From TrEMBL:
Lineage of producing organism: Bacteria, Bacillati, Bacillota, Clostridia, Eubacteriales
UniProt-recorded Gene Ontology molecular function terms: pyridoxal 5'-phosphate synthase (glutamine hydrolysing) activity
Name by which UniProt lists this protein: Pyridoxal 5'-phosphate synthase subunit PdxT
Family of the protein in this entry: Belongs to the glutaminase PdxT/SNO family.
EC numbers on record: 4.3.3.6, 3.5.1.2
NCBIfam families (UniProt xref): PLP_synth_Pdx2 (TIGR03800)
Active site per UniProt: C78 (nucleophile), H170 (charge relay system), E172 (charge relay system)
Origin superkingdom: Bacteria
Subunit-level organization: In the presence of PdxS, forms a dodecamer of heterodimers. Only shows activity in the heterodimer.
């Protein structure tokens, strides 16, 4: 398996280390040509407005969107979730628009309000796993076909639709590999089908 990590900013190296720890290869993605040679892609955290602008400036927005709509497995963490969402609360901007969710940016507050929580996500692990929230968004509306995977304090913080996975939190900032293992298993299933 070869997993691309969108490499404009954010937790790129941390995602790469987790993917490699699971005996898969990870490659930094910085231009549209690199999208043809991967089995899945992770859109890491960072600043969604900046990453969105860079997707546009590098002419990656349309090819990446088309790849995802044609089945390329994608996982967006934090800012990555915002980039994938159809709608962003209190904003007329949107980016890739590939999953029917509405997200609230910085829903838990600023950097100072960052927190960790342990939660059971049955699809991902039989044990509670650590969730790290940093200026995190959450989902305020799920489309009818979108499955909620995890709620924290009544708010949806992980969801799935076909080949698209989104999380408000940062599994790459923990030692736990379960969420990356789950994403790789999704990639394998989708590559086979």
């Amino acid at each position: 398996m070869k997993i691309g990590i969108l490499s404009f900013q954010g937790g790129v190296i941390e995602h790469i280390k987790h993917i490699e720890a699971l005996n898969s290869s990870a490659v930094e993605i910085k231009n549209p040509d690199q999208l043809d040679d991967i089995d899945g892609i992770i859109l890491p955290g960072g600043e969604s407005t900046t990453i969105g602008k860079l997707l546009k400036d590098t002419n990656m927005m349309i090819p990446l969107r088309e790849k995802i709509l044609n089945g390329l497995p994608v996982w967006g963490t934090c800012a990555g979730m915002i980039l994938l969402a159809n709608n962003i609360e209190n904003s007329d901007k949107s980016y890739l628009r590939v999953i029917d969710i509405t997200v609230r940016r910085n829903a838990y507050g600023s950097q100072i309000d960052s927190f960790s929580e342990n939660a059971l996500i049955k699809d991902v692990s039989p044990h509670k796993i650590p969730l790290v929230f940093i200026r995190a968004p959450f989902i305020t509306r799920l489309g009818s076909d979108v499955e909620s995977l995890c709620k924290v304090n009544g708010n949806t913080v992980a969801a799935k639709y076909k080949n698209i996975l989104v999380t408000s939190f940062h599994p790459e900032l923990t030692e736990n590999l379960d969420f990356h293992k789950y994403f790789l298993s999704q990639c394998r299933q989708l590559v086979k089908s």
